[in-house]
Inverse folding.
């Protein structure tokens, strides 16, 4: 007589639960349920409140993960917010309008934003902060420099995937085109960029930053008629931010020099050669 093989013992419920929660894509639920169960027992919470607490944790985490995903997808050159922006440093910038824009209602109205001003005045910082605010409020964003966007459009055209890229750019809720004006565009580049602005007109918002006043945009697009048509579309529903003043970087380095009037090489010479720490004579 042969002994019957022992029946496979059923998997412990924790293993099954972990499996099901993974299938259901509830990672926070899985990570937190034991801790929350202990809390619930200690506080005498009933089952419904125990589940409610877990569901709330999952929702909060899911929202955070989605914001992070949108930020990654936006390809920002840096992640900056208005928390680190000093409005007193740039009195020409309309602070109430800027903060109103940070509430993102212009995205629902499909308005555009144009930030104009000389170099170093915070245009990129402001458009990054508006982009971040949009990601946090659930809007998909794409960030480009004008030169980078034109480069990608030309490459897509050469590789016969221009239509696909155009469709992607038309679908995004907020397109940010930074630094229009630093590099003059080729005729093809100008036409491709014009097409993007045209396709987005009244369909989605675009933020453009430029160091050039509108009168000089022809020098970027190399064609008065095209520039006129582009400005016509872009400025149809637009909020204009003016950032004119001294470069923030320059002002900061001047302030540093005022605090330490020694020439930079002398300051460097006073650095600890091992740690690089600045040794200051007291
Ligand atoms: P622009 O795009 O107009 O040339 P940036 O936004 O690149 O200027 O600003 C240059 C640097 O100075 C960046 O590091 C930016 O974060 C910082 N900066 C500019 N303006 C401010 C400001 N008002 N408050 C805080 N940081 C600022
Ligand atoms: Mg810039």
């Amino acid at each position: 007589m042969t002994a019957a093989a022992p029946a496979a013992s059923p998997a412990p419920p924790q293993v099954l639960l972990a499996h099901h929660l993974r299938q259901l894509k509830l990672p926070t639920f899985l990570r937190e349920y034991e801790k929350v169960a202990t809390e619930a027992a200690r506080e005498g919470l009933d089952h419904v409140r125990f589940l409610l607490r877990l569901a709330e944790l999952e929702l909060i985490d899911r929202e955070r993960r989605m914001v992070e995903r949108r930020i990654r997808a936006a390809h920002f050159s840096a992640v900056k917010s208005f928390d680190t922006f000093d409005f007193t440093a740039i009195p020409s910038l309309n602070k109430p309008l800027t903060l109103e824009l940070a509430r993102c209602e212009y995205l629902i109205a499909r308005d555009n934003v144009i930030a104009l001003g000389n170099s170093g005045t915070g245009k990129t910082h402001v458009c990054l902060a508006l982009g971040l605010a949009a990601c946090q409020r659930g809007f998909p964003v794409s960030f480009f420099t004008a030169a980078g966007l034109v480069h990608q459009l030309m490459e897509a055209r050469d590789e016969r995937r221009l239509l696909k890229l155009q469709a992607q750019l038309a679908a995004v809720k907020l397109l940010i085109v930074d630094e229009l004006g630093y590099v003059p565009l080729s005729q093809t580049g100008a036409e491709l960029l014009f097409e993007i602005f045209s396709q987005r007109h009244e369909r989605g918002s675009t933020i453009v930053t430029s160091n050039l006043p509108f009168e000089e945009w022809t020098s970027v697009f190399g064609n008065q008629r095209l520039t006129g048509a582009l400005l016509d579309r872009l400025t149809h529903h637009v909020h204009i931010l003016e950032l004119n003043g001294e470069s923030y970087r320059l002002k900061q380095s001047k302030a540093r020099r005022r605090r330490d009037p020694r020439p930079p090489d002398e300051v460097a010479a006073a650095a600890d050669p091992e740690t690089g720490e600045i040794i200051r004579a007291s």
Q: What stands out?
A: DSSP finds 13 helices and five strands in the chain.
